[in-house]
Amino acid sequence: MTAVRHRADDPPSLRPGGGTSPSTGDQLAFSRLPAEWRRALAESELDEDQARHVMLALADRFGIALVHWTRVDIQARLVTDPGGPERELTPREWERVTRTEAWGMLPVLAEDAVADSGQLLLAIRQAGLECYGCGRALPADRSLPLTWGLCDHCRAQTSVGEILRAGCVAQLDGDHERLGDHCRRCGVPMPANEKRAR
Ligand SMILES: [Zn+2]
Ligand SMILES: [Zn+2]
């Protein structure tokens, strides 16, 4: 599977010139913002935690699957004296962390891990966007319980029993999961007596 890079779509760094992951993608995203937004962000008095919540709220609203790391992730791994106070990074120490090569690599490593996991393909299958038999686009207005994730041609060549026996194509462990009278992952009908048989 080819890893699809999407850095240009990343949320912009809220602290241009500082902040985390000063990658080309982040800088490009920041430059795409309207001038008044860039000004507002540059002059913003948000603290780091508030900025994090803004990003999470925006990600939630627009369906962006966001993962992030902060100074908390570093602090939690620092050795503290037994019985002593928790170690807190100074602003300068934190800045040194954010400028390391290791820290800058985090997004790329996460992208590679996800690209290799098959999780994005599962999302396509669970959303019923493409026929998993031949790759044809499925009609946008037909839900998964109607298509079973298959085009008319491929569906005519298989049966519910065969799909149930073969395992769920929309889950890594292959288990179908009943929702009402169908599998909520791949859409295949699951007759009521199937429940008792399991
Ligand atoms: Zn097909
Ligand atoms: Zn299924």
Q: What does this molecule look like?
A:
Helices cover 47% and strands 2% of the residues. The longest helix is centred in the middle third of the chain and has 17 residues, at 101-117. It folds into 2 domains: 7-117, no CATH class; 131-197, no CATH class. With 198 residues, it is mainly alpha-helical. The radius of gyration is 23 Å and the shape is elongated. It has a two-stranded antiparallel ribbon. It contains 11 helices and 2 strands, in the order ααααααααααββα. Mean pLDDT is 85; it is low at 1-23 and 194-198. 14% of the residues are buried. One zinc ion binds next to loops.
Task: Please describe the topology of this protein.
Layout: H1 24-32, H2 35-42, H3 48-62, H4 71-75, H5 91-98, H6 101-117, H7 119-127, H8 144-147, H9 152-156, H10 160-166, E1 178-179, E2 182-183, H11 192-197
Antiparallel strand pairs: 1-2
Bound molecules: zinc ion (2 copies).
The site of one zinc ion has 8 residues, from helix 9.
